[in-house]
């Protein structure tokens, strides 16, 4: 059965803002834990399949587009088109397509030309029998009329690089999430915590994973690592177990690895030693400003991080089995009761 946090996760994958996550509650306030049935428009859906989840996301995005909730711009449309190639065919209850909507007010010639070049039908009629051209003349939209005339004379195909758009969207979404998390109230933080726990404990259903484009699953876990507060040692262990490569991930905006963040924000020795002990860790990785972990720890005065780095480098020079040493240290920390499994996390 699909849980609420996975519905939220799916919407985030589609690019929905965290501030819009009330949509999940508006569907019917809550998902019933016993049976986890989603009640939508009075119909109980016993299990959300990949197709059903995409339809939910599609319905949400259409409401955003045609309800004047979001401003239509080229990047937004391209981002949605990554997962919904039929966006040029979407229409509201009155039969208006995106071209119809743009004909009413938009001077965005680049967006209009892009839609035409990706299959938007300039001859499509709304429920009143009006084409985009009819509306453009009605509202005196010279930009739309000029674009339609040019396309009628010589059509074109608009370039569309889905991988490049997805990467750019991931970058922007992670930055947006980091900003929104900083301003969240208790209820929103609780919802975010539920999503995190669901992803770390249960993972994504196989059906959902199979329907994702390359990198989309990692995107969810990347946001947990770089945008979520109060990650504990338990959280990090679960994350590494699910995504071992996460130790090499870099923040899409700053280039920081998680170890860079620990150098800046944490003096929790257990967290630092655990992360440094993970396979594949690169202590020489540099961020976008050219700083290594040691650089940041020095600038921040993080003596715990610097001490651990010194020990690691000393052991490396002595050609000692580092995994064995770190395992021993963690065992000692556990025995001493200093393991931070039950702590609030390095942001706490």
Task: Give the H and E element order.
Answer: HHEEHHHHHHHHHHHHHHHH
Give the end-to-end Cα distance, rounded to a whole number of Å: 33 Å
Strand order of the largest sheet: 1-2
Shape: elongated
Nearest-angstrom radius of gyration?
25 Å
Specify the number of helices: 18
Q: Enumerate the spans where pLDDT stays under 50 for 5 or more consecutive residues.
A: 1-48, 339-348
Q: Mind sketching the topology for me?
A:
Layout: H1 4-13, H2 22-28, E1 38-40, E2 43-45, H3 50-66, H4 74-83, H5 98-105, H6 109-117, H7 132-138, H8 142-153, H9 162-182, H10 186-201, H11 206-210, H12 216-227, H13 233-242, H14 258-265, H15 269-276, H16 293-300, H17 303-317, H18 322-336
Antiparallel strand pairs: 1-2
Summarize the model shown.
The chain is mostly helical and 348 residues long. It is built from 18 helices and 2 strands.
Question: What keyword list fits this structure?
Answer:
disordered C terminus; about 350 residues; mainly alpha; Serine Threonine Protein Phosphatase 5, Tetratricopeptide repeat; two-stranded antiparallel ribbon; disordered N terminus; 18 helices; 2 strands
Walkthrough of the structure:
This protein is an all-alpha fold and 348 residues long. It has a domain at 235-348: Serine Threonine Protein Phosphatase 5, Tetratricopeptide repeat (Alpha Horseshoe), CATH 1.25.40. Helices cover 57% and strands 2% of the residues. Strands 1-2 form a two-stranded antiparallel sheet. Helix 4 packs across helix 9 (162-182), helix 9 runs parallel beside helix 12 and helix 14 (258-265) runs parallel beside helix 16 (293-300). The longest helix has 21 residues, at 162-182. The protein is elongated. The protein starts with a helix and ends in a 12-residue tail after the last helix.
């Amino acid at each position: 059965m699909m849980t609420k946090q996975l519905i939220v996760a799916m919407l985030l994958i589609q690019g929905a803002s965290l501030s819009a996550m009330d949509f999940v509650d508006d569907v019917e306030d809550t998902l019933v834990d016993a049976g986890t049935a989603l009640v939508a428009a009075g119909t109980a859906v016993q299990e959300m399949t990949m197709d059903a989840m995409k339809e939910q996301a599609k319905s949400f995005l259409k409401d955003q587009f045609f309800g004047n909730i979001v401003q239509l711009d080229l990047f937004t449309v391209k981002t949605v088109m990554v997962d919904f190639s039929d966006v040029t065919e979407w229409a509201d209850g009155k039969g208006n397509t995106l071209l119809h909507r743009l004909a009413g007010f938009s001077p965005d010639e680049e967006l209009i030309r892009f839609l035409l070049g990706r299959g938007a039908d300039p001859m499509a009629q709304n429920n009143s029998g009006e084409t985009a051209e009819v509306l453009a003349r009605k509202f005196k939209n010279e930009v739309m009329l000029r674009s339609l005339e040019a396309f009628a004379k010589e059509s074109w195909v608009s370039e569309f690089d889905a991988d490049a758009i997805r990467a750019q969207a991931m970058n922007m979404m992670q930055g947006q999430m980091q900003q929104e998390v900083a301003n969240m109230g208790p209820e929103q933080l609780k919802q975010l915590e539920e999503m995190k726990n669901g992803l770390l404990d249960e993972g994504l259903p196989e059906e959902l994973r199979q329907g994702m484009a390359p990198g989309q699953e990692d995107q969810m876990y990347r946001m947990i690592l770089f945008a979520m507060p109060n990650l504990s040692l338990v959280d990090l262990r679960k994350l590494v177990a699910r995504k071992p490569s996460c130790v090499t991930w870099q923040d899409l905006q700053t280039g920081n690895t998680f170890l860079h963040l620990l150098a800046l924000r944490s003096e929790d020795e257990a967290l630092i030693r655990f992360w440094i002990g993970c396979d594949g860790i690169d202590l020489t990785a540099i961020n976008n400003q050219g700083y290594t972990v040691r650089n940041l720890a020095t600038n921040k005065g993080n003596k715990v991080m610097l001490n651990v780095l010194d020990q690691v480098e000393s052991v490396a020079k002595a050609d000692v089995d580092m995994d064995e040493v770190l395992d021993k240290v963690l065992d000692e920390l556990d025995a001493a009761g200093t393991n931070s499994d039950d702590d609030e996390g390095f942001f706490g």
